[in-house]
Amino acid sequence: MEAFFKECPHPDDKQRKELSRELGLEPLQVKFWFQNKRTQMKNQHERHENAQLRAENDKLRAENMRYKEALGTASCPSCGGPAALGEMSFDEHHLRLENARLRDEIDRISGIAAKHVGKPMVSFPVLSSPLAAAAAAARSPLDLAGAYGVQSAAAGLGADHVLFGAGAGDLLRSVSAGQLDADKPMIVELAVAAMDELLRMARPDALLWGGGASAGAQQQQLDEEEYVRTFPAGLGPRQYGLRPEASRDSAVVIMTCDSLIEILMDANRFAAVFSSIVSRASTHEVLSTGVAGSYNGALQVMSMEFQVPSPLVPTRESYFVRYCKNNPDGTWAVVDVSLDSLRPSPVIKCRRRPSGCLIQEMPNGYSKVTWVEHVEVDDRSVHNLYRPLVNSGLAFGAKRWVGTLDRQCERLASAMASNIPNGDLGVITSIEGRKSMLKLAERMVASFCGGVTASAAHQWTTLSGSGAEDVRVMTRKSVDDPGRPPGIVLNAATSFWLPVPPKRVFDFLRDETSRSEWDILSNGGAVQEMAHIANGRDHGNCVSLLRVNSANSNQSNMLILQESCTDASGSYVVYAPVDVVAMNVVLNGGDPDYVALLPSGFAILPDGPPPAGAAPSHGEGLDTGGGGSLLTVAFQILVDSVPTAKLSLGSVATVNSLIACTVERIKAAVCAEAGNPQ
């Protein structure tokens, strides 16, 4: 078993049974041996990591002692004698006075720059401490302090060659005193340099990108050699141990430029629109609200957690500054760049290089959005099943952001539509009813995605030793939350591969006529669609209200709210049982926040990038990868209505059995369907 473990630490059921036959052991003994061995290896790895961290800590302590000794033996530059303590503090006082003078100079020039929008202004680096002053003196004039060690081409040039663009003066002046006040000049400088890089990378004629030139093709990938040639100084060297990941994609979306900017600069709205990608978003400090009542020059420090809908892909956390700028040609740009030197955590697993979007206003309320994603990540914890998808950049890349934005813009347009035809049966025509139902479905999908990835923002606790090796089971207690039923909730999620294209899996799962083939809770009853709201051009994007006509008359009042959504990067089918009375209130325009629901459902992704040279086909964006699908199944179930009750092992076993049975039914149904001639 030791030899087999080296080759395959995660044997499947078939391999375990084969080993048990060869060794004369029970399959459970083999299973537990592999579980224990993996735990043992993990502990060894953690001990090794701890030893490395302790060694690094000792090294830093020794370095700190050397610096203290160097300060203690400091000599006077004039006479060579020992420097008195009074002289040291006098020098420090002089530096503080000089810093104050430079700050006043920045404010004065900022005022001049604000009156001449579009004219640049010279950067004055501000030193926040005597050590920073000494370090600056030792550096070359071109080396500017920053989270990435930014090198500016503007340094050493005339006043016409500027680092800060239009609005940067106001950006500096409008910063209120706060935790990051001392770092304000460095953050501003970094943001402006990042904006310059983003604008150059987003240009249509940029030679940095390869592939994806034709409409509908996969996202463009960064040419690393060309990137180094274009940005020789860049924003610092590549971080050791982190893998670069960069992509670009664009689309025309049905939303005005102003509305897009408002979403991008509001953390809560951003997290709501991109709930399938962003599990948590926070604004820590607003350094500037913008100039002249607009977001031009707005600057804020944020943190976010990014996710892929699978328990097999760890989330990515990033701490960064977001900067918004209105360019002279009328376009708007929003850029993110990591603040590594200010990051609360010393362990960096996701470093956000200049990433963001360029927005161009188009006629009739449309906008063209060009999105650039450029990160460095430690993705060693990604499961092998998802590695081709993650390595291709499709899991977290620009195509997913653009596809989600395009779909959500169509969804918002649908919510605001007033000219709904009355001809189709079941179409909800009431504007207030549509808004309430879409808002409820939006909360349902966000709760589902957060539960699948075990985001810290959703307060789930993972259970160890829950029985099923390939299923992650989590629990949470729901108290005083009107949007969830009170009690203990179990969440079980698993991901697996299907040899069927994603589009076929999506169509099968969202179709109410085939629901009885996999939905155990419907008890084999027929499912009928009572009402629906179309969410855009693709008929797969819709919110439906389903009724289960069960043979058991006690369940005749059971309704299911379901949202199905699809774009070029992936698909979701999310549903939740809802109360009839509560849904009547929602359909009449009532507040959906007081409807208690527990979402379950599916996330469907391609199993990797499309093969080289594959011809793109409109509307078939999901038929990519190796022809297979990565399907995640997740259930949230109330196991006890008393929040203080103890969780029973029987409840965990029931949830494991439910998800295992559902998986087997789906495999049997879609694979049998795929084997039939179409």
From TrEMBL:
Family: Belongs to the HD-ZIP homeobox family. Class IV subfamily.
Cellular component aspect of the GO annotation: nucleus
Pfam families to which the protein is assigned, alphabetical: Homeodomain, PDF2_C, START
Residue range(s) of DNA binding per entry: 3-45
Single Gene Ontology MF annotation: DNA-binding transcription factor activity, RNA polymerase II-specific
One of the GO biological process terms: cell differentiation
PANTHER family assigned: HOMEOBOX-LEUCINE ZIPPER PROTEIN MERISTEM L1, HOMEOBOX-LEUCINE ZIPPER PROTEIN ROC1
Main location (coarse class): nucleus
InterPro entries named in the record: HD, HD-Zip_IV, HD-Zip_IV_C, Homeobox_CS, Homeodomain-like_sf, START-like_dom_sf, START_lipid-bd_dom
Subcellular location: Nucleus
Keywords attached to this entry: Coiled coil, DNA-binding, Homeobox, Nucleus, Transcription, Transcription regulation
Parts forming coiled coils: none
The species this protein was found in: Zea mays
Protein name listed in UniProt: Homeobox-leucine zipper protein MERISTEM L1
Cited SUPFAM superfamilies: Bet v1-like (SSF55961), Homeodomain-like (SSF46689)
